Amino acid sequence: MNRREWMRAGMAALFHGMAGRGRASGAAVSEDLDQYGGWTGRQFESTGFFRVEKDERWWLVTPNGNAFLSFGVNHLHPDWWRQDYNRDAWNERLGVVRRDRNGFRTALRAWFLQTCGDYGFNSVGVHNSLDLVNTPRPSMPYVRPISFVDIPHWQTDVPDENFADVFSENFVGRCDRMASELAAPARDDPHLIGYAMTDCPLLTEEDCRERPDVIGGARRKSRIGWPRRLRNLGSEAAGKLAYVETVREVYRDRIADFNATYGTEFGSFAELADAEAWRPETDLSNANETRDNVEFLQRVVARYYGTARDAIRRQDPNHLFLGDKINANTDTLDTVIPVTSTFTDIVFYQMYGRYEVQEPGLDRWSSLVDKPFINGDSAFTMITETMPRPYGPVADSLEQRVDWTVEFFRSAFARPEFVGWHYCGLIDGSQLVSRKQDRQHSGLIDGYGRPYPGLQEAISECAGEMYRIASGSH
C-alpha cells in the first residue's frame, strides 16, 4: 500500500473502527454514528454546525443534529516525531525517506487518524498542529485556538505588558484583527466545534504568586497579574480608570476608607487615578485588598471575555465560544466561573486529578452554572527513566494508570453536565524531546510508537461504550 492509499484508509477507518470496537463490547448504540462521530440514537435539530443542547443531560450536537460527546486527544506536535533519538524509527515506521518532509507529514497524518480510530478518539483538542490535522481538509471535529492574551500558567517568563489593558481601544482592535485572521476563514467549517483562548491564563493571586518549586527546584518569580498592573498605570489608561471606578463603588465613594485599607493619603479618587506605580505589590494578609483585587479581576475578565467573544462572532456567528481553558487545579475556576459562564457556551477547564479529586469541583461548579463542561487537557502518568517529572497524577504502576483512566472516563461521562475529555497526550513527551527537559508528558505510546500495554484496550473499550455510559444504559 502506498502512502496515498494508506492515508485514505486511515481516514476511512476512523469512525468505522470506533463502531467495530463498540459492537465487540456489546454497546447498544456504538454502530449508530454519523460522519462526525455523533450518536444517531438521540437526535436534535440540525443546524449544519456544532452546538449544545440539554434534555435529560447536556450534549454537544453535530452538524447533522445528532448527540455528540467529545473524546479528544492533544499534543500532536510533529517535531516530537522527528527528534534525533526517534527520527529514523518513525521514517521507517511511516515508510518515508529521511529528507522527504512533505511525505512525512502526509504519512504522519494518516497514522494519526488511524491511531485515533484504534483508541476511539473522535475529536482533536486545542493543543495540536491544526495545519497537519486539517490539511488538505478537516476530517475530525476539532477546537481552534485563538489567544488574545499571552499569559499561560506554564510559561516561565510572562512580561508585565502581556497583561493587556482590555478596556482600551487597542485591545478591541487586536481582537478584531485576530478574529479576522483566524475565525473568518473557519466560519463555514462544519468540523469546527468552537474557539478556545489562552491555556490556563494567570488570573488570581494564587496563579501569579511566586513558586519555589515547579520545575525541578527552580524558583519561579511572581507575575504581576491584571489587578496589580492596571491599578499602577496612569490616568490616561482606560484600565486604570476602570480600577478607580471599581474601588470607588466598593468604598461607596469614601476615599478615607480606601486609605485605611491601603495606608495611603489620597485626597480623592481623582488623585488615585493620577497616581502611577502607587502599589506594585499586594499584601496577601490584607483581606480588604484581596477582596478589591477579586472584584476588579472579575470586571477585567468580563471585559476581556465580552470583547473577545464579540470579535469572534462578528467574523463567525456559527461556532461555539469556549473561552479560556481555565485552571481548576488552583482557585481560578471558582473565582471567575460566575463571570466567564455568562459569555461562553461551554465551561472549558483543565484539571489534573483522579475522579475523586475532580468530583467535588464538578459538583460545586455545576450547581453554580447550568452549562456543559469539557476537561480540555488531563491524563494520568507514570515516572520512567526518561520522564522523571511528568505532568498529572503519577501512578505507581501501569495497571494503576489504566484503572485511574477507566475510573475517570466512566464516572465523568456519566455526569449530566460532562460532555468532553481531551486526553493529554498521544505520544510521550520525554526528556529526549529537546523542549521537555523540565517537565514531561506521558503518552499512550512511547516515542518510538509502541503502545503501553493495557491502555489501548481499556480506552477503546470505554470509547465504544461512551454514549451508553452517558445515556445511563451501561
Name the features.
alpha/beta, disordered N terminus, 474 residues, 16 helices, eight-stranded parallel sheet, 40% helix, four-stranded antiparallel sheet
What does this structure look like?
With 474 residues, the protein is of the alpha/beta class. 40% of the residues lie in helices and 15% in strands. The protein has 16 helices and 16 strands. It has helices at residues 3-25, 87-94, 101-119, 130-133, 169-182, 205-208, 225-231, 238-250, 255-262, 269-274, 287-315, 332-340, 355-368, 398-413, 455-464, 466-470; strands at residues 39-43, 51-54, 58-61, 66-68, 70-73, 123-124, 142-145, 192-199, 211-215, 218-220, 320-327, 347-350, 373-378, 381-382, 394-395, 418-423. The strands form 4 sheets. The chain has an 8-stranded parallel beta sheet with strand order 6-5-16-13-12-11-8-7, covered by helices on one side. A 4-stranded antiparallel beta sheet has the order 1-4-3-2, with no helix packed on it. It has a two-stranded antiparallel ribbon with strand order 9-10. A hairpin with a 4-residue loop joins strand 3 (58-61) and strand 4 (66-68). The longest helix has 29 residues, at 287-315. It is globular and about 75 Å long. The relative contact order is 0.14. The model is unreliable at 1-30 (pLDDT under 50).
What are the SSEs and their pairings?
Elements lengths: L2 H23 L13 E5 L7 E4 L3 E4 L4 E3 L1 E4 L13 H8 L6 H19 L3 E2 L5 H4 L8 E4 L23 H14 L9 E8 L5 H4 L2 E5 L2 E3 L4 H7 L6 H13 L4 H8 L6 H6 L12 H29 L4 E8 L4 H9 L6 E4 L4 H14 L4 E6 L2 E2 L11 E2 L2 H16 L4 E6 L31 H10 L1 H5 L4
Parallel strand pairs: 5-6, 5-16, 7-8, 8-11, 11-12, 12-13, 13-16, 14-15
Antiparallel strand pairs: 1-4, 2-3, 3-4, 9-10
